[in-house]
Amino acid sequence: MLFDSPVFVVFLSLVVLLYWRLSWRAQNVFLLAASYFFYGWWDWRFLLLMAASTCIDYVVAKKLATLRNPRHRRALLILSLVVNFSFLGFFKYYMFAAETLNQLRALVGSEPFHVLQVVLPIGISFYTFHSLTYIIDLYRGHATPAKSFTDFSAFVALFPDLVAGPIIRYKTLAGQLAFREHSVPRFALGITIFVLGFAKKILLANPAGNVADAVFAAAQPGVLDAWVGVLAYAMQIYFDFCGYSDMAVGLGRMLGFEYPKNFDAPYRAESITDFWRRWHISLSSVLRDYLYFPLGGNRSGETRTYINLAVVMLLGGLWHGAKWNFVVWGAYHGLLLICERWRSKTSLYSKLPWAVRVGMTFVLVLLSWVLFRADDLTAALNYFAAMFGLAAVSPASVLLRAELYTPLHVLAIALAAALVFQPAQAHEWAQKPLSWARVALQLPLFAFSLMVMFSQAFNPFLYFQF
Questions:
Q1: I need a surface site. Which of 144, 174, 437, 451 has the fewest CB within 10 A?
Q2: Could you report the per-residue pLDDT of 233-276, keeping only the tens digit for each?
Q3: Catalytic positions
């Protein structure tokens, strides 16, 4: 079930109507049932996978809270890690590993073996991380055990952030699961940020995605077309994921939960280090706290720091998808971060004016989005060749330009580009007290977005595949 679909509008209306009529003791039970219904709408069979992971981690956590022997506690932690990563590894990485092994076997003349076709459960990376951060925090003494199985299950399955984040830690919501404030002003502010995220997705991400898909599918685009295509993809992936995160924050607030923001104007970053402080903040903080610091962080000398950064970014790339281009995308960002760390966290262009620093960082990010969007490494190399005029231009590029440079596409990308480079953020805007002027703005915006949604055939959420 997608947030920007007619069925979700009906689902949300019923959930809100019933939720606000329940006692606080019954609300968590209701949210758990609603969240399982939400996830099962896609494929009910994968409910068993999420339920199994939840049950195992709940039992492990209960036992972990009573043990004092370090060896026994470590064994339980390892058990949880093995179970969760086994589920994640099989469903997300089995086909990638098997196909890579077949390619290696082909190099030495061996016959390939049959590869099972495995369906990737949507959101498995997100709810697995939710569960694992709880177990690790409990092991470290940074969290308290869940008060009930219902509370923990509801935390793992909460539908606002279930299938595409942001990644929320249990200690962030523990107090809110026990008690949360419900009020009309908070509910209204939740609607405000949901509407803004919804508009980002429908009015900006989807038109930009049409342009990006057309260019990346073209055999031999021209130089300008290739740059426009990756610019469109940069707008699509930002407004798609940021829009979803805003909707999740808004939905959470409508239900009494306060989620942290997941983006902070990332395309205004002045360096790659600054970019990763602003982009997908919840993932960056999880990789830092649960991988980079345990590896030693920057406490064991420069060389070890560079190795740790490389490992974190390689695994961060692989987390996004089981393809070699995601690994190379992670390596690319890791190399840039290492370079800036070597320069005391400053870029090579740190002395230039602010606008130039932002522009150069944006270009570096654009180059990385080619790796992220391309179907494979060969397609990425061909696209780079088109961007830098190293490939022949197809005669069909005339038809491509006719598809790209329509008034609607040009307007959508220009508006998106103007919005990403200004400092005002939806999350901060929605913190301000509601006024009649803002109501007068958001109601027609939501109505227009709904009308556009019903007319759009192209409406994917990119991060569902991660």
A1: 437
A2: 999 999 999 999 999 999 999 999 988 889 999 999 999 999 99
A3: 320
